[in-house]
Amino acid sequence: MSFWPEFLIIASVHLLAVASPGPDFAIVLRYAVRYGRRAAVFASLGIGVAILLHVTYSLVGIGVLIKTTPWLFQLLTVLAACYLLYLAQGALRAKAPVGKDVIELERQATPASLKAFSAGFITNGLNPKATLFFLSLFAVVISAETPFSFKLIYGVYMALATAAWFCLLSFVLTNSKIRGFLLLKGYWFDRLMGVLLLLLAAQLLLSSFGGAKGG
Questions:
Q1: What percent of the chain has pLDDT over 70?
Q2: Are 155 and 33 contacting, i.e. CB atoms less than 8 angstroms apart?
């Protein structure tokens, strides 16, 4: 298969995957609501860099080891669920800002940048669904005859496209008018994200232990 037809298929599949709601979306939305544009962008960059992690282990074959070793994949799933639970408990404790709290929320953006990047990276890096997506992509869509250099280009593109998508989302969510509303009412969105993160964590745990029981 030549470069462009294969690339267009990959780009289309990736776009559908990255645009669908999931842990990555929840994290970006939470940081946009709670800390503002800078933190949300850093979380987006963390997600994009984590894509390179998935691409790397898919290229070197580690992903196959994870998939074919049930306990290892289950451990990855449990770790991801625990991290989502950790984020959820923080989101659920969000309180309504009053007076000076609004100003403090705006000031939290800068110190939260590194934390936001780490949250984005860990959330995507531990996501077992992302693991399965890239394994399937490299096993089914990308031909075995495709040169390594092409595969590397595909991986870099997906990392950049993912980061760009969530950065765009960050800018939309932190528009001045939207930001003003979110600073006052955003704690409700924060709590909603906490519930969503709890549900995502529960889904991961149920699929993990359900699959183990079924196996």
A1: 79
A2: no
Which residues make Cβ contacts (< 8 Å) with residue 214, sequence separation at least 6? Answer: none
Cα distance between residue 140 and residue 98, in whole Å: 53
Picking from 87, 94, 92, 161, the residue whose alpha carbon sits closest to that of residue 127 is 87
Of residues 61 and 101, more confidence is placed in: 61
Q: Encode burial over 18-41: b for 16+ CB neighbours within 10 A, e otherwise.
A: beeebbbbbbbbbbbbbbbbbbbb
Q: How far apart are CA 2 and CA 189, in angstroms?
A: 45
Q: How many CA atoms lie within 13 A of 46 on its CB side?
A: 27
10 Å CB burial of residue 78 (0-12, 13-18, 19+) is middle
CA Rg, the chain, in Å?
Answer: 18
Element (H, E) at 128: helix 128-136
Kind and range of the H or E element at 158?
A: helix 148-173
Q: Which amino acid is at 37?
A: R
Q: Select from 121, 109, 98 the least CA-distant residue to 31.
A: 109
The mean pLDDT value for 193-207 works out to 79
* pTM of the complete model: 0.75
* pLDDT exceeds 70 at position 75: yes
